[in-house]
Amino acid sequence: MSDAHFWFTEYQNNNLSIGLRIKQIIHSEKTDFQTLDVVETVEYGRLLVLDGCVMTTDKDEFVYHEMLSHVPMHTHPNPKKVLVVGGGDGGVIREIIKHPSVEKAVLAEIDGRVIEASKTYFPHIASGLSDPRVDVQVTDGIKYVEDHPNEFDIILIDSTDPIGPAVGLFAKDFYQSVHRALKDDGIMVAQTESPFANAKLISSVYKDVSEVFPQTHLYLAFVPTYPTGMWSFTMGSKKYDPNAVTECRVSGTKYYTNAVHKGALALPPFVQELTR
Ligand code: AG3
């Protein structure tokens, strides 16, 4: 195979793909739940792939991890106990523990191999997993949420796409169970894919979350290696409004600022439409 054709390709549908030229395949395995690959790319550093889909890369991981975490973490005045469902690479946990208010952060990841691969090949992403406040549970997140009523200030759903192991994480039943696992002023955020590629999914998640939570908010971030580059996050909040946040409590972020927080909640009309 000539060098010119050594590419990783994620096929987003029959007509669209994203490609990254790769230097080498570092690791490949079939876990009990999915295929897992780590490849070294030319432009984006190391790339973590699950079932053929880009999960994260060295170069742009901060965008998604900061935005999934810091928007809800700032919306809550004093988040102490946080649960991350999925997110075995540890990127979301790393951001959460930047908040001094956090006493405990639980990671409920179904696939222990993702955690191990991240520790080995993405130590800067997995770094937070060894913090004494972090409790790593290799378990089914759906079951974990059901078994912990009225416990968390924030629950973040860092899932794969709504196919395979993550299907149940996009269901209304699950949002109801998340609502029960949150305290009276709790907040959830789920990653909800691309407005260009997954408009129907975003609409239906928005509707489901708004039938469960008194407030629902959609926000966006720019993730170059995810399908279409425009990514959405759906927040369900029992009490606090993310639009009211006026300060940034963390330093050293590369994407998140108070102005970006506000801007992320401003939706272009074609995305706003998905919330009606
Ligand atoms: N969570 C997966 C986002 C979905 C990406 N989808 C895709 N490439 N088709 C990312 C895990 C990072 N902690």
- Major β-sheet profile: 7 strands, mixed
- Described by the principal axes of the CA atoms, the overall outline is globular
Can you name the CATH architecture of the largest domain?
3-Layer(aba) Sandwich
Q: Given this structure, which CATH class of the largest domain is correct?
A: Alpha Beta
The CATH superfamily of the largest domain is known as Vaccinia Virus protein VP39
Radius of gyration: 18 Å
Low-pLDDT parts are none
Q: How many DSSP H or I helices?
A: 9
What does the oligomeric state look like here?
Answer: single chain
Strand content: 25-35%
Characterization of the model:
The protein has 276 residues and is an alpha/beta fold. The protein has helices at residues 61-75, 91-96, 112-121, 123-126, 141-146, 172-181, 199-212, 258-264, 269-272, and strands spanning 7-13, 16-30, 35-41, 46-50, 53-57, 81-86, 104-109, 134-138, 152-158, 182-191, 215-222, 230-237. A hairpin with a 4-residue loop joins strand 2 and strand 3 (35-41). Helix 6 (172-181) crosses helix 7 (199-212). The chain is globular. Residues 10, 53-56, 64, 87, 89, 91, 158, 160-161, 191, 226-227 line the site of 1-{4-[(3-aminopropyl)amino]butyl}guanidine (AG3).
Q: Key features?
A:
alpha/beta, Spermidine Synthase, Chain: A, domain 2, seven-stranded mixed beta sheet, Rossmann fold, five-stranded antiparallel beta sheet, 276 residues
Set down the secondary structure blueprint.
Layout: E1 7-13, E2 16-30, E3 35-41, E4 46-50, E5 53-57, H1 61-75, E6 81-86, H2 91-96, E7 104-109, H3 112-121, H4 123-126, E8 134-138, H5 141-146, E9 152-158, H6 172-181, E10 182-191, H7 199-212, E11 215-222, E12 230-237, H8 258-264, H9 269-272
Parallel strand pairs: 6-7, 6-9, 7-8, 9-10
Antiparallel strand pairs: 1-2, 2-3, 3-4, 4-5, 10-12, 11-12
